[in-house]
Amino acid sequence: MIVGAIAMVALSTGVQADRERSGTWSTDRGASGTYSGQSERSGNSVNRNQSVTTEGGRTFSRSSQTEFDRQTGEVNSTVTGPGGRTRTSTGTVDREEGTLNRTITGQSGRSVDATTSVDRENKSVGTTYSTQNGKSVSTDTSRNEGGGRSTTVTGPRGDQRTIQSTTSVDRDAGTATRTMTGPGGRSGSVTINPGD
Predict the structure, then answer these.
(1) Distance (Å, whole) CA 91 – CA 75
(2) pTM across the whole model
């Protein structure tokens, strides 16, 4: 959760291909630490490495390698998260339909089929994950007015929960803050200060 939130804020402040970024982070609940991120593009491949260290010295790392064949639309990726847990993904992009169909295989060897559809007109992205036993979970993310995002997760029994997120950048202070609000109004935020 910490790695994902800080990575998203870092991306909003300009982590691009062949770039390195590092700095400090803090939350509204008093936690703090450092982070670093690197993205490198070579041909059809993109490699990303992200690391977050807490004030207590614990480090959480995430790395990913993605290859995309523009001619065939084939996409292959490997993601290694905290603890060395790895998942792989193999799929195909259909540019005309605006879809990505792929199979995701986790550390244990279990796999799910995922279909992602992009609705450019409504600025939304929807993904459905289907397991081998027929159950499915879907997510739908759309942009709100002011640049925020709303993500609704629908469970296998039809239950739903929505998470609202906004990212604000203070150019004078050189900081960016991401705030997330979940079901019941529970919220939290993380602020990063690049370059410290």
Answers:
(1) 5
(2) 0.82
pLDDT, one tens digit per residue, over 95-129 is: 889 999 999 999 999 999 999 999 988 889 999 99
Number of domains in the chain: 1
Domain of 88 in residue numbering reads as 2-194
